[in-house]
UniProtKB/TrEMBL annotation:
Alphabetical list of Gene3D superfamilies matching this protein: N-(1-d-carboxylethyl)-l-norvaline Dehydrogenase, domain 2, NAD(P)-binding Rossmann-like Domain
GO biological process, one term: phospholipid biosynthetic process
Residues binding NADPH, per UniProt: W14, R34, Y51, K106, A138, R253, V277, E279
Binding annotation for sn-glycerol 3-phosphate: K106, G134, S136, K189, D242, S252, R253, N254
Protein name, per record: Glycerol-3-phosphate dehydrogenase [NAD(P)+]
Length: 330
């Protein structure tokens, strides 16, 4: 039996887009936001001018009361990775036993190096976890443009319930039982997108851009497998697909962040000009440390971590990568 009422935690661009899609799929949707002005705007104007101004938010009830989310059949958690634990702990106060939670944010918790499924397990013991990942821009989903994603769950019946609840001809979820692979792919690609943005901002050419995506995918795969994911999963939508999209469009917050760095702006200047979170900035140091812990070679991601921490300059990072020893591709 499919979920009929869906609570969405997080009214940023992605959370709003997923709420719009779920409503179009025939679900009754409650959208939670921390900011009262966002809640009021959605409920009175059917718009989210702060985070997704170009989309209509029709037939969706917004709230700042987490208890309203707990009353829903299932929950989509879409707050940024570094704020996910706080949101889930708030939900835990009123959550139903065995609540179904789909994790829709991409990243690792910086302090603990844990994935969002680990954060969910610690915050709401007994919750049933699923993961949504793949090549998907919020505005494309909100406007009903064709999109395909990975919907990962260790329980196929649970996955099918979610697919039935949010799947539409224009929003195509593909089931996978590889939660670890889906999470790893979604997190690492944000860091690699920063690197691709730097390449574009510095004018290093399309050849360098293509090489970085290819070698970045090798890093993404190595880490995902070391964490217990399946290499075949990472060749799909949640790995290669998401990487190609995020590394190839200025719509990507992570790529545009890297582009601005390549154009000469500082980390503080770029982040200070944004309302939305750039996940790759917080994820980069976590991935660098995780790679070290697992003895996985990830020179591109490690270089990005050093750059965003401003321990090295862009020129130093690029030079270090180009001077690495020649080796076999595999």
């Amino acid at each position: 039996m499919s979920f009929q009422t869906i609570g969405v935690i997080g009214a940023g661009a992605w959370g709003t887009a997923l709420a719009i899609n779920a409503q179009r799929a025939g679900r009754d949707v409650v959208l939670w936001a921390r900011e009262d002005d966002v809640v009021e705007a959605i409920n009175t104007t059917q718009k989210n001018p702060k985070y997704l101004p170009d989309a209509d938010v029709v037939g969706i009830h917004a709230t700042s009361d987490m208890a309203e989310i707990s009353n829903c059949d299932a929950v989509m958690a879409v707050t940024p990775a570094q704020f996910m634990r706080g949101s889930l702990e708030l939900l835990a106060k009123t959550a139903k036993p065995g609540v179904s939670v789909m994790l829709c944010s991409k990243g690792f918790e910086t302090k603990s190096l844990k994935m969002m499924t680990d954060v969910l397990e610690e915050s709401i013991p007994g919750a049933i976890a699923s993961v949504l990942s793949g090549p998907s821009f919020a505005i494309d989903v909100a406007l009903g443009l064709p999109t395909a994603v990975t919907l990962a769950s260790s329980n196929q019946e649970e996955g099918e319930r979610w697919m039935s609840a949010i799947g539409r001809p224009e929003f195509r979820p593909y089931y996978s039982d590889d939660i670890l692979g889906a999470e790893a792919g979604g997190a690492v690609k944000n860091v690699l997108a920063i690197a691709c943005g730097i390449v574009e901002g510095k004018g290093l050419g399309r050849s360098a851009h293509a090489a970085l995506i290819s070698r970045g995918f090798a890093e993404l795969t190595r880490l995902g497998v070391a964490m217990g994911g399946n290499a075949e999963t990472l060749k799909g939508l949640c790995g290669l697909g998401d990487l190609v999209l995020t590394c190839s469009s200025a719509q990507s917050r992570n790529m545009s962040f890297g582009f601005a760095l390549g154009q000469g702006q500082t980390v503080a200047e770029v982040l200070g000009s944004r309302t939305a979170v750039t996940e790759g900035v917080a994820t980069a140091p976590a991935i660098a440390q995780l790679a070290k812990n697992l003895n996985v070679e990830m020179p591109i991601c490690e270089t990005v971590a050093e750059i965003v921490a401003e321990r090295i300059t862009l020129s130093q990072g690029i030079e270090a990568l180009l001077k690495r020893p020649f080796k076999a591709e595999d």
